[in-house]
């Protein structure tokens, strides 16, 4: 058998492609701002691309042209400074560039045997987050694709731990408790685990509180045999950006032997901000938390940090056993595969590690604090605009506000229009049954001028 170098070859054309790609990347990260862009329909895209997958191949030039000229412009740039919907992203230049290095390095991120150096760097980064949360030295976990996956892994670990300690062999119906403002992925995790979600009534801002949690649990206990083994508290509910009473939730969980998982996918970044951190008092008593660096810690997609107070419990619940893997368990220091529902894994924590190690944590404090302050400033600007009304004072970096007199259709039409004009992505949301507008700030390049531009477009 001779070698087949048709795919794996380095020739002049490969070198030229490398230069073109580096040039493209350089151009993209230099753009200030990148074009906002917007989606096309499936039919429009099919017409524009023609057949892309062929037996003969299009060649580098044509395939790359299709990406640059057709595909990329049909995707919204979520790092645009006026992309203020959902949760935007704002990867640092250092993190984006290092992602290329990760891609080129073929590092298998699941076992220490293969990924030791990279896993060490990831673990130091997780340790920084664990330290900010006040977790003990033995805490740890892994980087995973997102908060959704993190919530599922943490709740799986919580359930296994509960069964082992309390009810080996018994199959009482189990449930978790969370406020209605918990993220949809918490309900999805419960569906996968085939457990119930017991809704806890939120306070006037939708936050979970100790009082309401106790009341709900007491009512449950008096009723039927469902056992609540875990509480999910939000460290920044995505829709309103408010933080649950983590200290209160921790107190109740402690009293009743329940697991406390803090879903801080969006808001947990604020732990590194001097002014954001006090909102998280009590997180140090949680059993696990998840934070998405691809949201507010300036890492490219996709990157979430999952940390357990006692990682050994996750290892017991989640380690995969197979004959062909046995050698890896012998050679083990820290196998990230053991801490979530995954196996093969990109070392997706490295772009964050590189940027954090290069710039230092103080730069992260400043960058996150920027968005918290901007949210407060935007609130004042909204209050100063007669046709607008603030729904609530922002806690983190989400601002909810209404345009007086508008119907849901008018909100949507306005939102479509500002996107079509390339001005901004600001979509309506629903809060307490009412259609309102929502800003979510995470990009340190977003300024009050950007906000003013959008507010002017609402007048
Ligand atoms: C975004 C978000 C999630 C889901 O995270 P993904 O990374 O999109 O999977 C979960 N919880 C909260 C609070 C979020 O903001």
What does this structure look like?
The chain is α/β, with parallel strands linked by helices and about 450 residues long. It has 3 domains: about 10-35 and about 40-70, no CATH class; about 100-360, Aspartate Aminotransferase, domain 2, CATH 3.40.640.10; about 365-459, Aspartate Aminotransferase, domain 1. The chain has 16 helices and 11 strands. The protein has helices at about 10-30, 40-50, 60-70, 95-105, 110-130, 145-165, 185-195, 210-220, 245-255, 295, 310-320, 325-330, 350-360, 360-385, 410-420, 450-459, and strands at about 140-145, 175-180, 195-200, 225-235, 260-265, 290, 305-310, 390, 400-405, 430, 435-440. A 7-stranded mixed sheet has the order 1-7-6-5-4-2-3, with helices on both faces. Helix 7 links the parallel strand 2 (about 175-180) and strand 3. Helix 6 (about 145-165) crosses helix 11 and helix 8 (about 210-220) packs parallel to helix 9 (about 245-255). The longest helix is centred in the last third of the chain and has 23 residues, at about 360-385. The chain is globular and about 70 Å long. The termini are far apart. The structure holds pyridoxal-5'-phosphate (PLP). Pyridoxal-5'-phosphate binds next to helix 6.
- The total of beta strands comes to 11
Second rung of CATH, namely the architecture of the largest domain: 3-Layer(aba) Sandwich
Low-confidence stretches at least 5 residues in length (pLDDT < 50)?
Answer: none
The first-level CATH class of the largest domain is given as Alpha Beta
Q: Provide the CATH superfamily of the largest domain.
A: Type I PLP-dependent aspartate aminotransferase-like (Major domain)
Bound molecules: pyridoxal-5'-phosphate
Total domain units: 3
β-strand percent reads: 5-15%
Specify the number of helices: 16
Q: Which structural category do the helix and sheet elements fall into?
A: alpha/beta
Q: What is the chain-wise order of helices and strands?
A: HHHHHEHEHEHEHEEHEHHHHEEHEEH
* CATH topology description of the largest domain: Aspartate Aminotransferase, domain 2
Looking at the structure, what is the overall shape?
Answer: globular
